Amino acid sequence: MSNPAKVAVFVSGGGSNLQSLINASKSGNLAARIVLVISNRDDAYGLERARREGIDTFVYNVKKYPDRAAAHKDLMEVIEHYDIEYIALAGYLKLIPKPLIRKYADKITNVHPALLPKYGGKGMYGHRVHEAVLKAGDTESGATIHIVDEIYDNGKILMQKKVPVNSDDTPDTLAARVLKVEHEIYPIALNNLITGKYQ
Ligand code: GRF
Fold first, then answer.
1. Going by C-beta distance under 8 Å and a sequence separation of 6 or more, which residues neighbour residue 176?
2. How remote is the CA of residue 171 from the centroid of ligand 1, in Å?
3. Pocket test for ligand 1, best of 10, 21, 111 (most atoms within 8 A of CB)
4. 5-113+143-160+183-194, which class in CATH?
5. Is the pTM of this model over 0.90?
6. pLDDT (tens digit per residue) in 152-181
7. Where are the domains of the chain?
8. Chain centroid to CA 51: how far?
């Protein structure tokens, strides 16, 4: 792969989306090299996945800084140090500082476990999303990859893939079906972005 883009991935949990991005990068299906994995939690299993792949990690916990400005400054310096070109949020549950969103305009992506603009916005993450889909009686759900801007789950949609909602679904069974397509479409959408297919 000729000079793959340098990508930082932000995780808060298990990191299965991170793993699918890593796998796609290793198999040549993603024109990127994941050079840094950042988490707000030092116990995120996604950090363990990174360590196993020899990828540097950085725990970014705003509470550990004297103030928000100091935290943002440190994060920006780390991102600069790794010469990051794209940022992929993968199950990251915190806000991205506005200076970072501005610096990486149209180069930060996120995966959301529903068909945005439905079931998005502040507080709509994880199980709450699937509970809301089931409560509404929808017959389909799916995953969305979108650009991150300064409003939650609001940026340009890059790719979506639908899944059926079964009458006997629980939030768990629906989440598992949606997660599978997340893993499928995130590497494709990020590769399209990096290779300029959305220009
Ligand atoms: C996924 O359900 C994703 O939709 C949401 O957070 C979860 C992340 O899972 N953004 P993982 O950490 O990638 O396994």
1. none
2. 14
3. 111
4. alpha beta
5. yes
6. 888 999 999 999 999 999 999 999 999 999
7. 5-113+143-160+183-194
8. 18
